[in-house]
Design a protein that fits this description.
- With 271 residues, the protein is α/β, with parallel strands linked by helices.
- It is built from 12 helices and 9 strands.
- It has a domain at 21-153 and 216-267: Aldolase class I (TIM Barrel).
- Helices cover 50% and strands 14% of the residues.
- A 9-stranded parallel sheet has the order 5-4-3-2-1-9-8-7-6.
């Protein structure tokens, strides 16, 4: 077993560099498993610090249309949680980038929590964000992940009270994932006003580094968030680009170019 989780290692290194983490999200199995593995490795090569690898689910209530459709495309090809774990194992053989599974609870329960934690760790995953599992109900889940040196990452929202943030901070792993706005994932033209102050409150109350997601879609927005937070999550914009370029010979090159621009913008931010 690793002495220190890869996510914790990467965040510690970035803290020393006074830099924010670039955290792209992609859906495992979109455009297909081989393609998503190539994309994950490409993202790592272009500066991704942690990759969120989405487990496709038939009722992704927290996701907007772009990621919903990616999940449906993957499910139509027969992608399951077990196949995602095998895919993680193949990515791990090609890259040491920290990998965080992004899943809804139902696939994990169907698989079996303890079995899932054991198999995810064996495949080379480093953490899990279970989007619809609040920390209040997660004791067995957290214990199973902890026993396998996997990070449990939890969400905080603009509506979270100080007391709630303190509880989330006590439950989450190396960082807390802050939802920059209420609603579902998706791109937006402008960031929420008061984001820097909101992130500062989350950091103070949680006592953990903060990664911000939901709605960050351009290098300019990523740069702005990197000035306030320890991590910048970009999902829908990348998933949309993958969908637009699926089957095209320049798909990987196009994703790589966008990722490079995002990474460069984030590293110019000063937290």
């Amino acid at each position: 077993m690793r002495d220190m989780n890869r996510i914790a290692q990467r965040l510690a290194a970035l803290k020393e560099q006074q830099a924010a983490a670039f955290i792209p999200f992609i859906t495992g199995g979109d455009p297909d498993l081989s393609g998503s593995e190539d994309i994950a490795v490409t993202l790592a090569e272009q500066g991704a610090d942690i990759i969120e690898y989405g487990v496709p689910y038939s009722d992704p209530v927290g996701d907007g249309i772009v990621i919903q459709e990616a999940s449906l495309r993957a499910l139509a090809q027969g992608v399951t949680l077990r196949k995602i774990l095998v895919s993680v194992e193949r990515i791990r053989k090609r890259s040491d980038v920290p990998l965080m599974l992004f899943s809804y609870l139902n696939p994990i329960l169907s698989y079996g929590v303890e079995r899932f934690a054991r198999d995810a760790a064996a495949a080379g995953a480093d953490g899990v964000l279970c989007v619809d599992l609040p920390p209040d109900d997660a004791e067995d889940y957290r214990n199973a992940l902890k026993a396998n040196n996997l990070e449990s990452i939890f969400l905080a929202a603009p509506t979270s009270t100080d007391a709630r943030l303190q509880f989330i901070g006590s439950a989450t792993g190396s960082f807390v994932y802050y939802i920059s706005r209420l609603g579902v994932t998706g791109e937006q033209a402008a960031l929420s006003t008061g984001l820097a102050a909101a992130v500062a409150r989350v950091r103070e109350q949680c006592g953990k580094p903060v990664a911000v997601g939901f709605g960050i879609s351009t290098p300019e927005q990523a740069h702005e968030v990197a000035g306030a937070a320890e991590g910048v999550v970009v999902g829908s914009a990348i998933v949309r680009l993958i969908a637009q370029k699926a089957g095209a010979p320049d798909m990987l090159r196009t994703v790589a170019e966008f990722a490079r621009h995002l990474a460069e913008a984030i590293k110019k931010g000063n937290i």
